[in-house]
Amino acid sequence: MIIRVCDLGGTHCRIGQYVDGRLDAASVARFRNADHASFAALMTHYHASAGVAPADRLVIALAAPVTGDVVALTNLDWTIDRQEISRAVGVPEVFLINDFEALGHALSSPQALQSESLQEGTRTAKGTRLILGAGTGFNCAARLTDGSVAICEAGHSTFVAETELDRALQARISQKHGRCSNDRVLSGSGLAEIYLTLCELEGRTPRYATSQQIVPAALAQEDDLAVRACEEFVRMLGRAAGDLALVFLANGGVYVTGGMAHALQGFMVGSESRFLQAFKAKGRMTENMETIPVHLVLDDNAALLGCHEFQASMSRAVPVADHRG
Q1: pLDDT (average), residues 10-17
Q2: 139 by DSSP, 3-state: which?
Q3: Which among 15, 159, 293, 321 could disulfide-bond with 121, CB atoms 3.0 to 4.6 Å apart, if both were Cys?
Q4: Contact 195, 188 (CB under 8 A)
């Protein structure tokens, strides 16, 4: 059986095919969403350019809440219609799932994921595992001890302000958008807002406007405020990761992913990183936080694996109507 899998984010889309349970590496391709008029056009282009065999099933992981057959993406002006996609690409069975639901299913075999350990902790074989990601937006999912995946919209929870910078950032984003959520902060646009807030507090003229400019400048140590912005970003990410680890009691491990987390790998690693310091700084729960394994997931195909694991689990379960319409 051939299973086509797709990870559709706010900025990029990654597509591949599993043939008899194995990912065909030659089938994997990545596209910029902005280069295509619609998702159907992107999928048609993939099928024509990749030279792949027709698929029996298609599983699409979407950066949006999935509540039916028609889904509007959160950070991209596209609407995904399951039946339209089925007709456009000629795949009889199409499943729409949340992107973090896919990542949660990928945690069924975390050892298969390319990752870097941020904290060894004390591995609990049957503990809940949490995966969270900072990229175009922010969210998380948990794989529970019974193998089910709990999904949520954690990115749209309110950002917690503790420091002077936090409060200035919160005020800045609230003035623009009405409120300040974790999604607004723990994302590429959020890093730019942190940098601009630091410039404001320091009375300095900004040199950069986007995360694509800020991160290279910080990694090259070319600008002290760019460095501080990245350090503050990973601190805020670590604090949110620790909060969510407590919410889900994720003793089985915390897995961090997303384009921003990958880009800031140099700021994330090491026992003295502000990410890990903030992750563990939970007062009376600090000792417990030190026992939780924490990993930075570097596997670009993690969501594709999760899509395959999802459809495999659905094949063993009846009914499948909630995801197929």
Answers
A1: 91
A2: strand
A3: 293
A4: no
Encode 235-262 in three state secondary structure: HHHHHHHHHHHHHHCCCCEEEEECHHHH
0.85 exceeded by the pTM?
yes
Q: Tokens standing for 300?
A: 């670009």
Instruction: Provide the pLDDT for residue 125.
Output: 55
Q: Which pLDDT score, from 0 to 100, does residue 316 have? A: 63
- Give the residue from 253, 5, 13, 237 showing the smallest Cα distance to 119: 253
Q: Helix, strand or coil for residue 31?
A: strand
- CA 187 vs CA 77, 292, 301: distances in Å: 18, 24, 20
Are 321 and 82 a contacting pair, CB within 8 Å?
no
Residue whose C-alpha is closest to residue 180's, from 255, 236, 243: 236
Place of tokens 């039916």: 68
Residues 6+ apart with CB under 8 A from 178: none
161-166 contacts: CB < 8 A, separation 24 or more? Answer: 162/239, 164/201, 165/194, 165/197, 165/198, 165/201, 165/232, 166/236
CA dist 252 and 192 (Å) reads: 33
Neighbours of 111 (CB within 10 A): 5
- Longest Cα separation, the chain: 61
Q: What is the pLDDT of residues 160-206, one digit of tens each?
A: 999 999 999 999 999 999 999 999 999 999 999 999 999 999 999 99
SS3 34: helix
Among the listed residues 57, 43, 83, the one whose alpha carbon sits nearest the alpha carbon of residue 4: 57
Domains annotated for the chain, with CATH where assigned, are 2-104+301-324 (3.30.420.40), 115-298 (3.40.367.20)
CB 95 within 8 Å of CB 311: yes
Query: What per-residue confidence (pLDDT) applies to 267?
Result: 97
